[in-house]
Each structure stands twice: as C-alpha cells, then as structure tokens.
Amino acid sequence: MVLTELGQKITGAFRKLNTAPIIDDDLLDEVLKEIAGALLQADVNVKYVSELRNNVKKRVLMETDSTGVNKRKLIQKAVVEELVRLVSADKRPYKLEKGRPNIVMFVGLQGSGKTTTCTKYAHYYNRKGWKTALVCCDTFRAGAFDQLKQNASKVRIPFYGDYNETDPVKIAAEGVALFKKEKYDLIIVDTSGRHKQEQALFDEMQQVAEVVDPDDIVFIMDSHIGQACFEQAKAFRECVNVGSVIVTKLDGHAKGGGALSAVAATDSPIIFLGTGEHFDEFQPFEAQSFVSRLLGMGDLKGLFQTITEAMPLDKQPDLLKKISKGKFSMRDLYEQFQNLQKMGPMNQIMQMIPGMQQLLPKGAEKEGVKRIKRFMVMMDSLTDDEMDCNVPMVDSRKMRVAKGSGSSPMEVNMLLEEYKRMEKMVGKMGKSGLFGKGGDLSQLQRNPGQVMQKMQSAMDPRMLQQMGGAQNMMKMMKEFGKMEGGLGGMMEGLGGMGGLGGMGGLGGLDPAAIQNMQKMMGKGMGGRGGGRR
Fold first, then answer.
1. Residue spans of beta strands (DSSP E) within 191-257
2. Order of strands, edge to edge, in the sheet holding 216-222?
3. How many alpha carbons lie under 13 Å from residue 267 in its C-beta half-sphere?
4. pLDDT higher for 2 or 84?
5. pLDDT tens by residue, 435-486
6. Phi, psi of 509, rounded to the nearest 5 degrees
7. Contact, 282 vs 29, CB < 8 A?
8. What is the value of pTM for the model shown?
9. How far apart are CA 185 and CA 166, in angstroms?
C-alpha cells in the first residue's frame, strides 16, 4: 500500500529532525523538501504540497520567536496539522438518525467499486444494529443486479431490484417506497456508473435524486485514477448535491494521494475508506486519526470507540469483579474471542495501537483470526461444566472435544495451555490490586511509579519492551484517561487502559490483553495452530 510508504517517508524525515543537534533554516528546508517529495510521489496535487510547505514555514517563523518553544515539536506539530487540513473538509457529513428512514444515494464513475461499497456501507451499519436495505437502480451495466443480489445475500441484507424494468427512476421510487413502508432505518440506493462526458446518464442521476429525495449523496472516488478524480468529482458536485465521499481501493498499488487531495473538488468530507475486497475491510474516516495512523502514531481515540462499541457495557462490572478476584473461566475466554471478532479486521486494530503495526509480520493478523476461530469451534464442543471450569479436563474429555470439533487432541491441548496462560495472567492482575474499588489504577495521576511497578509485575517483560517501555505505557494510559465516555467512569475511576483491561484479556488495551492478542497471532505460542475444520 503506497500510503504506508508515504507514512514511512514522513516518519523518516521526522527522525532526521529529532537526531539533528541543531535545528536551523537549512535543516528545516531539507526536512520539508523530503516531506514534499514524499507527498508528490504519493500523487498529491502540487498546489496543495506547495501550500503545506509554505504554511509550515510561516508558522515556524512566527512561533520560534516565543521563549521556551521546542522547535522540533513545533515543526512536527505544524506538519501533522497541515496534513490533517489537506484531507479535511469544512462541511460536516450528514448524521444518520435512528427511528426514521435515512435515504443515502451512491454515485460515481464506472468501475469505482460502487456496488461493493454499497454493501460494505449497509453491512457496517447493520452490525451496529441498524435495519438496512439496498435498492439496485443500475440498469445500464449487465450483471449489476446479480452482483448486488449476491453481495446482499452474503451479509444477509434485504434488497430490491427488477430484471424486467429498464427505468432506474421507477425502480428507485418503488424500492424506496417499499422499504419506507417496512420502516427500515437506512435505505441505500445504488445507481449506474457514469462520467462527465455522458450527459444522458447525468440527467438520469438527477431524476433519481429528485424522486427518492436522498438525505445524503455519497460520491465513490476510485483511488486508482489519481488526480483525474478532481475534474470528475467537480462535475458530479455541479450536477447533484454531493454530501460525502468514500475513497475505494486503497489496499492496492494506487498512490491514493491524488484521490485524497481531490476531495477539495466536492467540498465534502470523506466518511469511509475502502481497504480491501472483503465486506469488513471498510474503515470510518476521521482526518486526525487517519494522519496519526499514517505516521505510525496509532489512534487511541479510534481504538477506544471501537472497543466500547464491541463490548456490551452492561456486562463490564461483572467481568471486572471477576478479574479483581483473579477468576477467569473458559466461558469468559470465549466471550472475549467473540468481542475481539466484533471489533473488525485485526490489522485495523493493530494500526490503532502506537508501534504495534511495525511489530507484527505481514499476514500475522489473518493467521491470528483463523486460530481464534479454530479455538472457538473446539470450545463449542465443551459442556457447561467444562466451560465454567467446574470439572478437570481429563484425556477422555479432550478426546471427545477433539472428535466433536474435527481437531486433534494436541490442538485441544494448545487451547487449554492458552487458557491456563490467560488465567495465570488474570490471577496476577487480581492479586496486584490494580482492579476493583479503589484499585491502584485510580491512583495513576498521584503515584504513577507504584502503579507502573505493579503493572510490570503482571505482564511479560518482553511485551513491555515491545510496547516501548514503561514510559510509553504510562503515556497511553494517560491518553485513555483524558477521553470522555462511560467506560472509565463506570469502572470506578480506573482510567483509560485499566478500564479497558476489564475486557478480560483479548479485547482490551491492558498489557495482558495485548500480550494475549499477539500470542493468538503466533507471537507467543509455539507450534502450529489450528484444527482442520
């Protein structure tokens, strides 16, 4: 992915800045030249690159006269803020409202990934509890309805279309009316692909927009066509009221910078990024978080939101109470596996944790997901007493579980070893006094040294080193503590990361959680993984 290379080049320029003994104008010019070169290679419009460079210089010049200013931090902050401005729009995206039908119409060029993105969009909100539906108004492309039908069936989303009807306006009106009657929260209208030279198709798009009266019109921008997006996006904006943008195909060799900077033509915000062909490879876009992940700084805010959405908050106090007593059953482990799957693709989660993306070998997260699924299949063969750890797992029980799950006794042993490792960690955390009412994590601000000492005793030293040492862990915990939300308060002042540790391991950002996630991905477990099922 070329955007990853962009992030690495900009990070390299920052590294040069940090290692230089003296920050003078020559070094600033050299660093900005490297950053500008990286942006141009990523196909960002030269106009915006020039603006970024000039704005950073002006800001550094204005603020360096102030006493006590750290010039290194000032330059880095100015560059990051200019990058955020580059991919931001003044206009705010339409906010969907539950309890009423929200009609969203998708428009864009042929082959930009509109139909697949419609399904991803519907699937994303369906997983969040929205009642979603799809309407296929693409009568121009052969097989368009079949594609939408297959996609919608895979993710179990209702759809409407008509093989015999050739008028997309009529299909749109009928489909929207049907789903409105059935009280759907989100109705997504997929239209034909078109470009600015096809005036007849643009007229048709306007007619569909008039008849369905959409709350939001989403323009699908193909990252592969680079800066050519600008003129096309401008043409769509002049024809219909484009409210949001989704950039697709960012997982390939597309430079992506051209598409991201072309958003200015629509004067509309980016709301999602398509990062792969699978339906869950679909990331919500927030400019600050995107730039932070791009530069390898992680996205703790996004991680916090992802975890709180995946975790049912009403179950948190019970699990926290168990951990404070050092208790952890196989059933708890199963629930955490389920929560981890709800959080989305593992590579996206890893990008949100500062420094974690560089620690994992390519493809490790996919192997980790497979391993978790295999473990869950084995756990489905356990009895209630076995799930609650009320009976010992003797050889006869292991053999029964292996046969029931299509795996081998050796693989069942691997699951049990992983559970014992996790149980031991939870036991240490419970004894350390970090959790529960008045736990030491509530004293983080007043006595950080003591808290970190206990945290270090409850985790593997190698994992602490991989996470950047105790100081980096402290910084992450403090960042979580600043965030608003019910999780920290509900957990009686545990602060950010400690509260997230209440997920019992695999779901949170607690050190034991991250360690266990890595073990699931082959970092901490020896041998080969998985059953044959």
1. 216-222, 244-248
2. 159-160, 132-136, 186-190, 102-108, 216-222, 244-248, 270-274, 282-284
3. 7
4. 84
5. 544 444 444 445 555 555 655 565 555 555 555 555 555 555 555 555 544 3
6. -100, 10
7. no
8. 0.69
9. 27
